[in-house]
Amino acid sequence: MTARKPSRKASRKSAEVPAEAAVETVTEPAVEPAAAETAADAAATPAPAPAATATKAAPAKRTRPKRADAGPPRPRQAGDSQGARPAPALDGADRGRLLAGDHHAPHDVLGAHPIPGGVLVRALRPFARAVTVLATGLRAELHDDGDGFFSGVLPVPQAPAYRLEVAYDDNTIEVEDPYRFWPSIGELDLHLIGEGRHEELWRALGAEPMEHQGVAGTRFTLWAPNARGVRITGDFNYWDGTGFPMRSLGSTGVWELFLPGVGEGALYKFDICRPDGSHTVRADPMARRTEVPPATASIVTARHHEWQDADWMAHRGDRPVHEAPFSVYEVHLASWRPGLTYRQLAEQLPAYVKDLGFTHVELMPVSEHPFGGSWGYQVTGFYAPTSRLGTPDDFRFLVDALHRAGIGVIMDWVPAHFPRDDWALAEFDGRPLYEHADPQRAAHPDWGTLEFDYGRTEVRNFLVANATYWCEEFHIDGLRVDAVASMLYLDYSREDGQWSPNEFGGRENLDAVAFLQEMNATVYRRNPGVVTIAEESTAWDGVTRPTDSGGLGFGLKWNMGWMHDSLQYVAKEPVHRKYHHNDMTFSMVYAYSENYVLPISHDEVVHGKRALVSKMPGDWWQQRANHRAYLGFMWAHPGKQLLFMGQEFAQGAEWSEGHGPDWWLLDPSYEASGDHRGVRDLVGDLNAVYGAVPALWQRDTSPEGFSWVDGGAAEDNVFAFLRYDADGSPLLAVSHFSPAVRSNYRLGVPETGTEGWVEVLNTDAARYGGGDVRNEEPLKAEAVPAHGRPNSISLTLPPLATVWFRPA
């Protein structure tokens, strides 16, 4: 079910609404005690941001500067009342709870409430010297009740549309009363949140700039079911939330407060009173924008980007991804060109990727994370693009630019775990909430993080909605889901006694299975053309099988087995490779069990694993030749392909997030730059031929699209196979991982190609830095039986090279 979008008018400059104009637009009747709504008076225009730490620090005597939107104090008018009658004393328990920050219904006490003989108005304004109620024909100063409380009974039959004039020691401001507004979130939203079925959760929770009851401001909503009380603290109230308690909206565990005058750019956090009465100050789990780390506050934001990718979005799903060309360039955004912002990346990255012919980019990191060295895999802001490179609209601009260049955008998505930072999700409201209540289920043994409680409906909703949020709000074309294996198994990295079996006695995490199925089904239903990709390293059955057939429902799966086996093979000296021949052929035993991606990712070129070219044996020439031959084998093998940045030009050093690729290797002033440019030219040509030849991608998931010519030539270090498109047109791929030239090498070929077979790509070409051993003329098929076929060709195999042939 699609949740109803709350009615709202986004205010782009809500902090600039004139005070008097705001008064004149109020047409709602006075609020009833149980339905009154909070509006932060001090929440006018955000004051200059304090230090990055969001701690409460309130001197006993503090004066407040005038707010930009407060306007001049309204002059006293003739006939105005000069004061209000004393109000009944506030119940001591309510008073104490409001001051302690553990009141669940502040609107019942604060704001305007009809009583016999008038309307009682009560305000909580710490540090104020006086508070006066202002309305048409009325000016009534409230009585100072101490501790920041002000109250009085107005001699009127019903609550007027009023504002508050708040006087401090050196200034006076005019603001809305936070507690005169009706709830700003609808009953349907609350119902769906309670059921864990709100597919647009970001529209209901978090900070939403809006116009409510004719007043511009921001609605704050938070899910914190274990909290005794919640207050909003931010730069608009000097990080003192005493006067800004939120109300609980019943059994849903949602807290709400509408703050008039607070607009985009305001910094905020939530001051949560835990079940034991202690307090914790937390960033918003639903924040759409954050401060730049190491600062941790959330930022009110709204979308203003005007998308220009309508054509891309309309046609990206025209062809199923497993039947389409899919060649991915993996990019660590912060280090691809260190120092570039999202908008600066938009000027350079699309052109570079398009020139190389990749169909997609995979971006890491995207979601906000506190530690750059985690590469974005320890997320604290699941709904916020990392602020290190710009704003959310800046990130949209980058995605838009890639789309307009014809490049799809995949992002790394991390629903497997989250860090323990005490300002983020860990024991968010004083008890395990996002993590599992069982410590053995909560603690991730490998990364010192916490695992999500996938069995809790609200937590599952948080993650499912997050997946579709990125697709819908940022036009993301694919989610590569990190560490799926760690989610699927209860005993993942755990010894006996450190885990408990599921209800059937098995090791499968049934809650995680249900979550992944729901996530995939929801994403595919709501976002045509989007693909989900599992990084799953085990033999779990049905990762890419549809959910209605019992599978997990992913579109593609990383082939970790192929990656490990093939890299193990090419790392051997050629003389030893014949003993490991099976490492290169075994992948075809299971190639059609899932829809695969062949990944040479960032994980394979860090932490002592060495860069791809440095894994290869031999001297520099042989290393590059092996590198090129391996890429040719990879691009021809069934499955899509992914290559991490820097490997496209044979960078020899391991990647580091601190400096990124060694672009200087391509500088013409560097004497060996031609070696690296040659490899990059090869990658461009691999992608060009790949995209133009459907045999290389159209039947990736169909056994009919592949046939061995010779998979057993271990003594020769040769792998020869055919790829077929839907019409049966073939491509012959021959990889030779020996440093010798082999002449008159005979291979059986299909009867197709009677006019001969021509080279369409040779990784030994001189322009790539090879020895230029070529098959110049079309190779005529001869009636000489070979490899079970009546016809064959005789060719020359270059050393350490892959050659592709097509019928002439």
From TrEMBL:
<dbReference type="InterPro" id="IPR017853">
    <property type="entry name" value="GH"/>
</dbReference>
<keyword id="KW-0808">Transferase</keyword>
<dbReference type="InterPro" id="IPR054169">
    <property type="entry name" value="GlgB_N"/>
</dbReference>
<feature type="active site" description="Nucleophile">
    <location>
        <position position="482"/>
    </location>
</feature>
<keyword id="KW-0119">Carbohydrate metabolism</keyword>
<dbReference type="GO" id="GO:0003844">
    <property type="term" value="F:1,4-alpha-glucan branching enzyme activity"/>
</dbReference>
<dbReference type="InterPro" id="IPR044143">
    <property type="entry name" value="GlgB_N_E_set_prok"/>
</dbReference>
<feature type="compositionally biased region" description="Basic and acidic residues">
    <location>
        <begin position="92"/>
        <end position="105"/>
    </location>
</feature>
<feature type="compositionally biased region" description="Basic residues">
    <location>
        <begin position="1"/>
        <end position="12"/>
    </location>
</feature>
<dbReference type="InterPro" id="IPR006407">
    <property type="entry name" value="GlgB"/>
</dbReference>
<feature type="active site" description="Proton donor">
    <location>
        <position position="535"/>
    </location>
</feature>
<dbReference type="InterPro" id="IPR037439">
    <property type="entry name" value="Branching_enzy"/>
</dbReference>
<comment type="subunit">
    <text>Monomer.</text>
</comment>
<protein>
    <recommendedName>
        <fullName>1,4-alpha-glucan branching enzyme GlgB</fullName>
        <ecNumber>2.4.1.18</ecNumber>
    </recommendedName>
</protein>
<dbReference type="InterPro" id="IPR013780">
    <property type="entry name" value="Glyco_hydro_b"/>
</dbReference>
<dbReference type="InterPro" id="IPR014756">
    <property type="entry name" value="Ig_E-set"/>
</dbReference>
<dbReference type="Pfam" id="PF00128">
    <property type="entry name" value="Alpha-amylase"/>
</dbReference>
<keyword id="KW-0321">Glycogen metabolism</keyword>
<keyword id="KW-0328">Glycosyltransferase</keyword>
<dbReference type="Pfam" id="PF22019">
    <property type="entry name" value="GlgB_N"/>
</dbReference>
<dbReference type="Pfam" id="PF02806">
    <property type="entry name" value="Alpha-amylase_C"/>
</dbReference>
<feature type="compositionally biased region" description="Low complexity">
    <location>
        <begin position="16"/>
        <end position="58"/>
    </location>
</feature>
<comment type="similarity">
    <text>Belongs to the glycosyl hydrolase 13 family. GlgB subfamily.</text>
</comment>
<dbReference type="InterPro" id="IPR013783">
    <property type="entry name" value="Ig-like_fold"/>
</dbReference>
<feature type="domain" description="Glycosyl hydrolase family 13 catalytic">
    <location>
        <begin position="330"/>
        <end position="670"/>
    </location>
</feature>
<feature type="region of interest" description="Disordered">
    <location>
        <begin position="1"/>
        <end position="105"/>
    </location>
</feature>
<dbReference type="InterPro" id="IPR006048">
    <property type="entry name" value="A-amylase/branching_C"/>
</dbReference>
<comment type="pathway">
    <text>Glycan biosynthesis; glycogen biosynthesis.</text>
</comment>
<keyword id="KW-0320">Glycogen biosynthesis</keyword>
<comment type="function">
    <text>Catalyzes the formation of the alpha-1,6-glucosidic linkages in glycogen by scission of a 1,4-alpha-linked oligosaccharide from growing alpha-1,4-glucan chains and the subsequent attachment of the oligosaccharide to the alpha-1,6 position.</text>
</comment>
<dbReference type="InterPro" id="IPR004193">
    <property type="entry name" value="Glyco_hydro_13_N"/>
</dbReference>
<dbReference type="Pfam" id="PF02922">
    <property type="entry name" value="CBM_48"/>
</dbReference>
<dbReference type="InterPro" id="IPR006047">
    <property type="entry name" value="GH13_cat_dom"/>
</dbReference>
